[in-house]
Design a protein that fits this description.
Helix content: 55-70%
Strand order of the largest sheet: 1-2
Oligomer: single chain
Organism: Thetidibacter halocola
Region (Disordered): 98-119
Protein name: AAA+ family ATPase
Length: 119
């Protein structure tokens, strides 16, 4: 990776000199340097991307099982809760119970024509 960064830096440093001598070709040299940099970056990232793809393939059956088993329960829960913004994030208690607390109701609005008193 350090080799690619050094190469890219060298391309950037040499490009202004080349651009002065060759006019419009400076942009082409810059594009070529960027292309080479990104090609090297992709070749460095390829093994990690392949590993990530392998992990996704391994997890696919577990995710499908979860969706098949929990799907109906989640669908039922979604039908019972109208507005999720009224609830706090779930908490797991020490005994393993999961609770979802309702947020406190906002202060009631002032009656029409009513004034707020500052203290």
């Amino acid at each position: 990776m350090k080799l690619h960064a050094a190469f890219f830096a060298a391309c950037l440093t040499a490009t202004p000199l080349a651009a002065q001598d060759e006019g419009d070709q400076g942009l082409s040299l810059m594009e070529e340097g960027a292309r080479l940099f990104f090609r090297g970056l992709m070749s460095e990232m390829e093994p990690a991307l392949r590993e990530l793809e392998g992990m996704a393939d391994e997890m696919r059956p577990a995710i499908e099982d979860f969706a098949r088993e929990m799907g109906p329960a989640l669908r039922d829960l979604m039908g019972k809760v109208e507005d999720w913004s009224l609830y706090e994030p779930p908490e797991i208690l020490p005994n393993g119970d999961i609770i979802i607390r309702r947020k406190p109701d906002p202060a009631p609005p002032l009656p029409e024509g009513g004034e707020e008193i500052e203290l």
